[in-house]
Amino acid sequence: MNRSVLISGCSGGGKSTLLAELGRRGHRIVEEPGRRIVKQELESGGTALPWIDAIAFARRAIEMAMADYTAAREWTGWTFFDRGLIDAASALQHMTGEPVLEGMSAAHRYNGSVFLTPPWPKIYTTDPERRHGFEEAVAEYDRLAATYPTLGYDVVILPKIGVAERADFILDRLGAN
Asked: How far apart (Å, rounded) are the C-alpha atoms in residues 65 and 83?
């Protein structure tokens, strides 16, 4: 059984908070590649940032997500990813038209159920690492919600409930309790 689980969806939809809750419960979690890249680039004065060079940013996110995926194959138990390779490849393909999704998705397969956080204006905020607006976040969500099923994933939209209840929902769905 593939225990590498993607949590994707709308920016500002509660993914990071949900991952923190799953980590608190003892599961291995992998922080979103994009947030790690933004932190690194801001600290070093780099330009691979989504608001400066989105293509370079997406390519770095693909590299980081591939390394995360490879590392997780050595781990036992459930591993929850805050976004992952498919999100980064989808972004790059959207921007450039390069057919990057096909080759990567077959070689780097996650658990068949992908959990998406839907757009939720009530909790959406920007921060130094998330500078885009809600409309851009919704457009990204729509693209991902359409992409995952074409790659053979079962998309599960997370209900707009508290973080503990969301974690319970995922673990129940996976039979991981």
From this structure: 8
